[in-house]
Amino acid sequence: MKRSFVVLGMLTLLTSCSVLKKNKNALKPDIITEKVMFDTDDPAIWINPDDASKSIIVGTDKLTDGGLYAFDLEGKIINKVTGLGRPNNVDIGYGLSLNGKLVDFAAVTERDTDKVRIYSLPELKEIGEFSVFDGEELRSPMGISVYKDPESKDIYVIVGRKTGPSDQYLWQYRLSDDQGKIKADVVRKLGQFSGLKEIESIAVDAELGFIYYSDEMFGVHVYHADPAKGDEEILLFGQGDFKRDIEGISIYPTGKGKGYILISNQQADTFNVYLREDPAKGKIAEVPFSTSESDGSEVTAIPLGDRFPKGVLVAMSNGKVFHYYDWRKIEEQITKAR
């Protein structure tokens, strides 16, 4: 029996090493988090307003009885909520007015219950929930992104589902305070779907006012985030650039209206890079990462202490973990490719 355990341990070690070494040019993670119980899926980054070096990575463990985990910048688990019904994706919102106070929060899709659950940050205390896609046969929420209108300060949640119709695939909800409880009102239904696989990753560029989402075997769709600007598609890009599934979308600003959009090329273990100011120009770089089958990702340009002075990209990887990458290394690869 002891020999069997030794062999299994060696196989596990070799498998882990092969994931990190399968592409000798792949960027190596600066930090690999502690493992969750079942299967990581999607991360988000909460910036600590008092000390950015104490910011938190929040990530989902997506199976039934999974949960929402909080990690510090060393990858250590510092808090968690477990026993959720297939929590899938997560995003962060700032300054939601509730009971006369402004609350930062994490919004999580829960597929088994057809709900979005909302947790205060940094405590991870549940402060609300609401059902999504009411009246629809196809529900099972997956993707989620939070949008705060820079002018009105209204906070919206855009939610996608496992599968759905060829249009109105995403629903946008406005969050408000209803006598101390979070109220979510549908303000519009939008978004084309190719029908080829599914839509999961959703990201919002609040400054530019755009919603991006991955139609996984088709392309990346772009719509206005402001409901008042209409529901017509602005742009479709990325077609033909991916090995198969188009996954996590992360937006890194380098200046007003400028920067990069990084999108996970899941089966190739790379991230395709597009210009934030003009993604229609096409892919400007493809950066290999040590992630395995990366599904969800998030990036920030805010300095997070000495280890991540120009920000960090966090990406899900097989093995029940998330990887942290120093942005400077990614920037170097993008610069070389250009």
From TrEMBL:
Q: So which domain of life are we looking at?
A: Bacteria
Write down the PROSITE patterns for this protein, in alphabetical order. Answer: BP_PHYTASE, PROKAR_LIPOPROTEIN
| Chain ranges of the BPP domain | 17-334
Q: Pfam families, per this entry?
A: Phytase (PF02333)
UniProt signal peptide = 1-21
Enumerate the UniProt keywords alphabetically: Signal
Q: Which InterPro entries match?
A: 6-blade_b-propeller_TolB-like (IPR011042), B-propeller_Phytase (IPR003431)
Name recorded for this polypeptide: Phytase
Q: What is the species listed in this Swiss-Prot or TrEMBL entry?
A: Epilithonimonas ginsengisoli
